[in-house]
Amino acid sequence: MLLASRRRLRAEVLIVLGLSLGQSAVYSVVQLLDKLTRAPLSEATSTLNRSQSTREYFDLTYQLLDILFALLPVVLVFYFLSLHVTGGSAGGSAFARLGFNFARPGKDSLQGLGLAAAIGIPSLGLYAVGRALGITTAILPSGLDAYWWTVPVLILSAIRHAIVEEVIVVGYLLDRFGKFGWSTPLAILVSAVLRGSYHLYQGFGPFIGNVVMGLVFAWLYTRTKRVMPLVIAHALLDIVAFVGFSLFGKAVGLG
Questions:
Q1: Torsion sign, CA atoms 168, 26, 63, 47
Q2: In the chain, domain spans
Q3: What is the pTM for the complete model shown?
Q4: What angle do CA 115, 171, 99 make, to 5 degrees?
Q5: Distance of CA 117 to CAs 198, 234, 240, 253, 254, Å?
Q6: Measured between alpha carbons, how far is 44 from 137 in angstroms, rounded to an integer?
Q7: pLDDT tens-digit profile of 105-137?
Q8: pLDDT value at position 2?
Q9: Range 60-87 burial, b when 16+ CB lie within 10 A, else e
Q10: What are φ and ψ of residue 47, in 5° steps?
């Protein structure tokens, strides 16, 4: 019975990853190989938040649809988790189980702000080092044209990335890896390497930086059992990068 349950959970994890960040990791590896076989990485560019139409309101529509559909695997995660919440056990609802709620907004916000500062400043240094060593592409956080909706959409995009990555790669996977019988260090390592892998299209520098970020975030989650501070920190990092580049035209790299 236990073996059958683990098999079902493995299939569940593969489905979730195949629809979300696992798929992104595969594409990222292929994109990295494509860039490496064209020219040195230092000559390549990685553009985030690309424009999808030259027509303003069609571009807005595509951006909002991308954000909406990217969040569906998160809905699927909470659906799967809710199937195993019984009679008030496992910490209540699936949201409470991962700490993805507003139960302690003040403490979560302070932790998120501190994490953003601790991760963001070294990330800029790592980006500069990676560019100097030729192992990191030029990263353009926004390729959107300047419309009235550009900044709000970039903020929504940052929040989308934060929710998808932290809920799936940290909260959900660590929960499932624990049920596989994995040790905590192994679960943290696999989670962190996955985070790095779907950033490989940006080069080896961002891969290393995101693995380190993943180790820190996953370790912190094992201590607090709350994903919300991680979501807040990640959203702040991306908002600063996306909106800052859009307003001031400065390329920066982060997770």
A1: positive
A2: 2-84+92-248
A3: 0.93
A4: 75
A5: 23, 10, 11, 14, 12
A6: 5
A7: 999 999 999 999 999 989 989 999 999 999 999
A8: 62
A9: beebeebbeebbebbebbbebbeeebee
A10: -105, 125
Structure token digits, residue 242:
């996306």
What are residue 174's DSSP bridge partners? none
**Please, are residues 203 and 131 in contact by the beta-carbon 8 Å criterion?**
no
| 3-state class (DSSP) for residue 140 | strand
Contact 115, 255 (CB under 8 A): no
Give every CB contact of residue 67 below 8 A, 6+ residues apart in sequence: 153, 156, 157, 160
Reported residue count of the chain is 255
The tokens describing 16, both together, are 């979730």
| Tokens standing for residue 119 | 């991760």
Give the model's pLDDT for residue 111. 97
How many CB atoms sit inside 10 A of residue 27's CB?
Answer: 13
Contact 190, 176 (CB under 8 A): no
- Cα separations (Å) of 76 from 51, 70, 91, 203, 249? 28, 11, 19, 30, 37
Q: Tens digit of pLDDT for each residue in 66-94?
A: 999 999 999 999 999 998 665 444 457 99
